[in-house]
Specification:
- The protein is about 50% helix and about 15% strand.
- It is α/β, with parallel strands linked by helices.
- The chain has one domain: Rossmann fold, CATH 3.40.50.2300.
- Strands 2-1-3-4-5 form a 5-stranded parallel β-sheet, with helices on both faces.
- Strand 4 (about 75-80), helix 4 and strand 5 form a beta-alpha-beta unit.
Length: about 140
C-alpha cells in the first residue's frame, strides 16, 4: 500500500483529500504545518508528499528543500492556492513532481488522477497486457 503525507494547515482541505485517498486504497497522514510534516517525513517512509506552500512555521519551499535533502526521489506534488508562475517554476528547479491548484475551482478527481499516475503509472489491465504479450516475444 502506498503511503502519502499531506502537509496542509487547513484541515477542511486536508480531510477530504485524506478520505478520498483512503477510498482509493492509499494510506495517508496529515501534518498541519511544515515542522510537523518534516517530523513525520523523518519518522516514516512515504511514496508521495502533497505539499501546501503557505503554512505556519515553515514555507512549503523550506519544507521541500529539507525533504529533498533526505530523499531526492520521493514524489512531491504542490497543492496550493498560491499560483504565482515564477514561484512554481523555481520550485520545479528544487524538485517538485507536479502542481495542482486547490480551492473553489479544485478538482479532487484531477488530484487523484495525478497521484495515481505517479504511484501506479500502469493499471492492472495494462500490466496484464504486458505480461500476456511476453509470450509473443521471440526467444533470443
Amino acid at each position: 500500500m502506498h503511503k502519502i503525507l499531506i502537509i496542509e494547515d487547513e484541515i477542511n482541505t486536508a480531510m477530504p483529500v485524506k478520505e478520498a485517498l483512503e477510498l482509493c486504497g492509499y494510506s495517508a497522514d496529515i501534518a498541519r504545518d511544515g515542522e510537523a510534516g518534516l517530523e513525520l517525513f523523518r519518522e516514516k517512509e512515504y511514496d508521495l508528499v502533497l505539499l501546501d506552500l503557505k503554512m505556519p512555521k515553515m514555507t512549503g519551499e523550506e519544507v521541500l528543500k529539507k525533504i529533498r535533502e533526505k530523499d531526492p526521489y520521493v514524489y512531491v506534488i504542490v497543492y496550493t492556492n498560491y499560483g504565482e508562475f515564477t514561484e512554481i517554476k523555481s520550485l520545479t528547479n528544487v524538485g517538485i513532481d507536479g502542481y495542482i491548484n486547490k480551492g473553489p475551482d479544485a478538482e479532487l478527481q484531477e488530484l487523484l488522477n495525478m497521484i495515481q499516475n505517479k504511484l501506479n503509472p500502469l493499471n492492472d489491465e495494462m500490466v496484464k497486457k504486458l505480461i500476456d504479450g511476453i509470450d509473443d516475444w521471440p526467444m533470443v
